[in-house]
Protein 1
Amino acid sequence: MLTSSVIVPANGAALAGDLIVPDGARGIVLFAHGSGSSRHSSRNRMVADGLNQAKYGTLLMDLLTADEERADAATAELRFDIGMLTIRLTAAVDWLTAEPATSALPLGLFGASTGAAAALAAAAGRPAEVRAVVSRGGRPDLAGPWLGQVRAPVLMIVGGRDAQVAEWNREASRKLAAPSDVRLVVGASHLFEEPGALEQVQKLAAEWFRQHLHTATAHA
């Protein structure tokens, strides 16, 4: 297993990430979160651990620099700058497709919160590279005009008690040209803090990537 701390250059920013590639990896999943330190998120790490056990590599990275994260903690503005987040996530997609350890692996995206919008926009911009997308408690509706350009199959996972976000996800799903599904985790709130909720996210994400990451349908 390859475990490495990496720096991803992205339009002048140096973004820290944690890369894990299991022996015999079947694919690689890039995580995106719009706020905070995505690579230190306990929820993202738990999902990533499940994917690693299923033989998928993972790259957890920060889409904001340390200075930007401090500013965003006060204003909450940068996490909603979908254009900037998309540029940086797309740079990470390009980095993974060029990196020797991951270049041959089919690539999927896992987005949380506003990172889900950036994941969809990046998928729209890199249709040949991104084969599947999963959103957890995300804001895919913020992807706006990019939604109709996504070709990769999209799974949107929402807490069953997170009614407003569920409606935003259903709205985004109706605008997608790509195959999509909205799945509710019964009894879960927005952060999936309830016992067993994140395990359901793990299972759903792994099944989606297993079903779609190895097909060519995303490129049609």
Protein 2
Amino acid sequence: MHIGHGRGVVLGDSMCRLLEFTGHSVQREYYVNDQNTQARRFGASVWARMHGEEPPEGGYTGAYVTELAEMAKRDLEGIDAMPREEADDRVREYAIGVMVERIQHGVARLNVRYDEWFLESGLWHEGIAQLAIKRLRESGFLKERDGALWFGPALEEEDGLGEQVRSNTEDRVVIRSNGEPTYFASDLGYLLSRFERRGFDRVVEVWAADHHGYVPRLKAAAAALGIDPRRLMIILHQMVNLKEGKMSKRAGRFVTLDELLDKVGPDAVRYFYLLRSPDTTIEFDLELALTQSNENPVFYAQYAHARLANVEVTAAERHPTLPDDADVSLLAHSWELDVARQLAFWPEAVEDATRLLEPHRIPYYVHDLATAVHRFYHAGNETSEHRVVVDDPVLTRARLELCRAARHTLKTALDLIGVTAPDRM
């Protein structure tokens, strides 16, 4: 997984956290492409490296492919004695299995879990993809042309565009002229699997922005299958850039998610990924992510929580017993009221982020609350009578109530984006 994949993982997981927090029943699912053209090219690339050959045209040339080939030669005894087609399937299955294990390890480092690792091949083994194609064929949505089976509504969009444009529209083909299904054919079955077989009320898919042209196609397919396309939500996210250069998954020139996690840790990765809306490209600043200063938004937020936790310790040491109830009417200074005002915005912030499926609103809120907390804390540093813990236990209890509310809200907000809230820094 490269750093671009990581953005989609964090975005999807944060949406799930918000939905669960607001009472929704959520299933997290990772769709594994294990049967389409690219999967076969991937398997063929590993096979080629196993035999000291170059990968096929359009195949994968990264160093990890050579590593997989060496592993396959060691683990797949007798593979060369198998019929070639059977051997190809076995190598592809093995290589994809190894990659899925690595992906599982990578997302776990980000504190992300999936309830289901859904294999594309399962759609065909269970006959769901075939059922979707049969239904669309019978309802007139699939049409024959040039020996291939096309999705009719997509085909009509091409009228008058000419053969050159048509030749670049493979995503509109369901079954190729050689009888081979496309990934679009699998997607038809995946729609039925989720909306009909498993009865999800709503499906949210997270894609990289380079797939934007496929959105109307999939929604049209849902409608053709009798599924309200409004129940299918597709969130697109832009790229993540580092100064190390361009990323190319197929050529193996990319910065892996593990490398980024090794450098800055999961908290910084998750927070920085959510600092911008999905439709904005991220320029990941490694130096800033490693800086322990207020310029680093992750440090800034976590330090606010740590300061509030420290106040609790100080209060317990100085006042072993405090009033049970807090007289919050004593909180009259502007820096105290600023914190209270930010706390009052919290329910609205959560509601908007969930309703709009925009988890980047949470770090925006966290920053605003952290700013109010730091101002509140600095007021006590400048003048001792404005500290949280003072000689008056009643006033201390009132200020402590504000601190507890702010600390709890900060911790909850950070948890919703998968970032820890340390008590000490």
Protein 3
Amino acid sequence: MNPKPKRLSDRIRLDLEIIADLIETGSRVLDLGCGEGDLLAKLMKEKACNGQGIEIQDKNICACVEKGVPVIHADLDEGLREYPDNSFDYVILSRTLQVVKRPDFILKEMLRVGKIGIVSFPNFSALTVRSQLFFKGQMPVTKNLPYQWFNTPNIHLLTIKDFNAFCSQEAIAVLKQINLGTERKKGVLPDLLPNLFAHLAIFKIQGNAEPGIQ
């Protein structure tokens, strides 16, 4: 007997599962740097979302098309000027913030075109990262930061503390923060001391907050 095929939700990363849970049924969703379209395919299938992806790599665009995910080829660093204000309910930037040239610009753009933003990124101040820097004196290589210094696409590494400070400075409200530890799982330590023990963070954010209010 052939094994049962895995459901779509069984095949995507845990952080994408968590992001999907944050999005309401029937929402208009824009996924920036959507990769192979796994998240949008799940949202379209299971939550009847109206999805749109933006991707720069041709192979990922082909994968999106195979899944039936609407996608356009574009460079996020050029902005989202083709989209009017508040044209989406949610705009997602999953593990992409650290690879763009102007992260502050794209964050402001995503909050312009979307009512709610969801951002995830690897935390560069996690204990395993600090340990490699301290004991080895070399740029760290981890599951969330798997590249060597000479071939990494990450050009703006940041910490959870950095992101919270940016949100406060730019009057961005943090509606929810989810901290994932080793193996990208939730736990007590990541929630207790996220900047030290969280390896990946997910933020649900909204623009036009009162300055300094989180």
Protein 4
Amino acid sequence: MSDDKSHFNRQFIFESQAQPSAPAAEVAKKSSRAKSGVILPAAIGALFGALVAGVIIVDGPNFVPQATHQILINNTQSVDWVTGVAATSAPSVVTISVSANSGTSAGTGSGVFLNKNGFIATNNHVVTLDGETSAVQIEVKTSDDHIYAASVVGTDPTNDLAVIKISGSSFIPIDFADSSALNVGAPVVAIGAPLGYDATVTAGIISSLHRTIQVPSSAVPKGGSSQLWGNNTNSSSDINLDVIQTDAAINPGNSGGALVNDKGQLIGINVAIATSGSSSTGQAGSIGVGFAIPSNDVKRITNQIIKTGKASHGLLGAMIKDQPNSGAAGSFSVGAVVVSVTPGGAADQAGLKANDIVTAVGSQVIENSSQLTAAIRAHAPGDKVTLTVTRGKKTLTLTATLRSAN
């Protein structure tokens, strides 16, 4: 099957903001890992800027963002739903600054309070500097401009999530919505620190549900050396994420921040944007195609991390590949083909066989192997999933009890 990324020349950019080490106003160079039409780490957001004396300099040495740390309401008679949502949710959103102990790299991102005791959800790529290192120093700035040192509780590279913690017991946790009950077209608000502008609010809608994107893994290799990103987008260094698509503007620095509904409840953690290609300056920004990890996945994984320090993931126990359309172009996929099953594994026990085509997991339509992988990994071991399968001219419904991928 021909990968649609080659047709649309698009890129996926992690939304943490990488900061060059020096000099302050130098344009960050595009990473040698970049290539058009692949998913890229946050470092090649390639923004102007550096972290100098705690202030983000964005477009040159003479341009410094003014303090806009809290949601200001000057006229209570003209407040709309976006203002209300922002005022409700902003106290639960933080700005995160991460620097390598070696001093070679740094970046900024966002996060949300999970509880009043200082546990914060963010993206794994934020706290590992896109997989470069686990030896980092982390600072968190809250909506009331207090700054705290933070420590990593645990990370989940498979779903690009992490939990960090600051000291305290009176923080305002985000309220979670049920992401399985979302509708396309529903209004949403994104809150985070794009380009270092903390407490930034943007509004939009849910553009699509169960979108699958493939991004480089931000896991730190054993031994702690820098992650080497290959040019093969199907390599083991890539992960598949089942995400919510939104047109609310998100940019580098939004990673780990909140995507909330019209009640101010969390529906997702912002993780990436798509771009139409690299510009001559190497900069990347929102084109209205952003992605967030669904809140139900965030809740399950972060709860596990808080309790055990790590997360678990479902395993089907089957080798799969794309099933290309029989049309002339052959550019679309119509399910995931089972190549083989692991004897005694979940797929085998459910009755799945080689050459079966999986077309749905529950109510989620499966178009390709990446989508099936993302759907399964979003589940916990022990979950029962319903698989819709085409076998020859028959359509079957099978139930698999997932094993553990860990």
